[in-house]
Amino acid sequence: MCVDYRQLNAKTRKDAYPLPRIKETLDALAGAHWFSTLDLASGYNQVPVAEKDRAKTAFCTPFGLFEFERMPFGLCNAPGTFQRRMERIFGDQSLQSVLLYLDDVIVFSTSIEQHLQQLEMVLSRFQMKGLKAKMSKCHFFQKEVQYLGHRVSSEGVATDPDKISAVENWRVPRDVTEVRSFLGFCSYYRRFVKGFAQLAAPLHQLVANVIKVAKESRKRPAAVLPTMWTEECNHSFSELKRMFTSTPILAFADFTKPFVLEVDASHQGLGAVLSQDHQGKLRPVAYASRSLRGSERNMENYSSMKLEFLALKWAISETFREYLLGSKCTVYTDNNPLSHFQNIKLGATEQRWAAQLAAFDFTVHYKPGRNNGNADSLSRQYSDQDVPQEQPNQHANTSSNILPNVEKPVVVAQQQIGVFPSRSPDDLATLQGADLTIEVFLSFWKRGKPPNKEERLLLSKDVKRLVQQWDRILEKEGVLYRQVTAPHGEVYAQLLLPMCLHEELLNNLHDKHGHQGVRRTTDLARQRCYWPGMGADVENHCRSCQRCVLSKAVQPGVKTYQGTLLATQPMEILAIDFTLLEPATDGKENVLVMTEVFSKYTQAVPTKDQTALTVAKVLVDSWFNRFGVPKRIHSDQGRNFESALIRQVCQLYGIEKSRTTPYHPQGNGQCERFNRTLHDLLRSLPPEKKRVWPKYISQLVWAYNTSAHRSTGNTPYGLMFGVPPRVPADFLLGEGTTEDTTSSWDEWVQQHRERLQVARDLARKNLQQAADYRQQHHNQQARDAGFTEGQLVYLKDHQCKGRRKIQDVWSPVLYLVVRVPTESGGPYTITRADGTADVRRVHRAEMRAAHLEILPSAPMTPNPCLSSSNQDIPVWRCQ
Q1: In whole angstroms, what is the distance from residue 431 CA to residue 439 CA?
Q2: Domain count, the chain
Q3: Can you give the CATH number for the domain in which 854 is found?
Q4: What is the mean pLDDT of residues 251-272?
Q5: pLDDT per position as a tens digit, 229-248
Q6: Shared domain check, 255 and 182
């Protein structure tokens, strides 16, 4: 059970009772040969609460109000109170035969007989004061024991060997990402390692070589790295681990000074680094890391804030407990909400963690992730396949005679950093000298004159481009820069950037800088660095950035070539669609629009829903029974129009069914255009009539049908029925006519047939001309490079409902184009790139190219949905 005592703790005057200093406590064990350790069971709960103070511990439950009679967990003064009580009980034996550190008790002696007497004394006082120990955590008559994070024996006090694997057992990297993670961790403390650049140079060069070979061979970097991991790389990796788990990197803890704790959590594991300020420089005292357990990997239960809170609780109350109890500590986390956890509402689990942390004196501050690389790297050294470790891995230095060997002060945590904040001029000069292009240029620069004509013939294209910048190159502290003047007059010194740092720079300026476009990313890079071909490299990086591809719309937007839907006679094609309006007083808000494509004659029927049954009833009652059965019905791919019921209706009446491509309403343009007209007509109604719009919709549709249509030059009514419509105005003006009176019925029929034929021929001509004009006007503005068979594409993501202003535009699932349209504006045929889905037909506007590396040698997965003519199209794997 856990009670949230944050408000009580905030108003409590802190108890200044000191905890024992660990160094002095361990020094008292000198000369002892026998040890026993005892751990009290729920030690705080064994301390009675004064009756006058019990009301302060009150908490409310559904069963009433309760108070603690024993000291609960979560009170800020609990450690001092408990330590005071233990020293009152064993004060006469403290540091002589017993060591007390909260609920951890160690009994030590020089002989077995003396040890028996001392144990009897300790246990008798336990019994007299009503204290209970936890048997599973007690160890008696030991030659060597674990106490306060150290291994204690007759030989002295040493670092626990089980607690040095966080760095010492860092596994050999398996891909470029893991190499970069290790280098990022080491770079955080590189100022404490003399000659770090030379020591890490093989790993930096390895990253550059692997990326280059992977691009040239079109293989995954993970497949290339093992073949390029040399003995030199292995020596560099092992030496760096050795340096970071020994002096002078690690410092011993000084309990008179405050601590600095940096924590981080990822979906791979937890990481923490405990540090202290030594002579103005932040030195690590201990490292810790562990992988996530099964329940902690559930992203539904563990949000990013909860994971970071777990790392905070684990680091303070479990891993570095003996260091931080009784000491002030400043905690840095890259999760901003966690820095306010004392003032926000917490869930049940978080409240339990907060109660465990209440005994510690610490403050939490936000520190951006880019500045928290040491803890971040430790949290990410585990993969999803790694077995979770039950015990955290630590490495702490207990040596008391450490001579610091440092070269530069630590950068303040909140200070804004540059692209490469921790690289000294010596480091940069070393990396420039190791670069294949800059190394050649340096040979000419050091001799003081550029290459002659004969020498230039032997140079690569990139070196020649550097030589062309000779007059702009300057040297500062052994590092080469290019000096340029911006259009506004500001002068920049651009670092000649080695290839091994290109990817890191682009990640910092693009991936970690808001994923801005090519122009802005290029401007950011040009203000800082230069290398031959930088503009093309920036553009390729931005184009291949999957986060940008999935989250951004294509600019400028795709405007495809337009197709047309034409009919040559009435009742050839009936287009149907729903439009949704404001609810009327009778509850109706849907309108089923039915438009005869040739004549443009339209019916609009209000409905209460959009179900397939409603569609079938309206088609039969409001169209088939009045005007006859069309040859074809055209609609979008709504479930109501594609249902089994509508298929049965079409089969019963012998009607062909056609459909638009998904999410492309322009494919049913006739209905979409009438919907706009209908909205305009309804909008013109007075406000009182708009509330009962179903009563007036038939009159408005009649007005539309009896007005000349621009595409045909005739009225929809006239083309549909062959006679001009009679409107109320005709009665007002009289029935004037210029036609001759026919003498017989047969003569009237003949004249009517001729006039109707002329009207429909003219309508066909006008329809074709109008369609050609629209298509030509549209296609002049078309922007569509099109796709080819075998090309990888993404589809628009329509799964997310509701507001989508900050949602990804494209789905991350890759598709393969298996057939291109034979006519402009037609649909593409695609299938899943992994071959697991059926063939789909989609419009060009729903697709965008996936700028990814492909593997021509990838195994092909045949898709049974493809025809035999397309079985030779491979299914590519993406890098």
Answers
A1: 9
A2: 6
A3: 2.30.30
A4: 80
A5: 888 888 888 888 877 666 44
A6: no
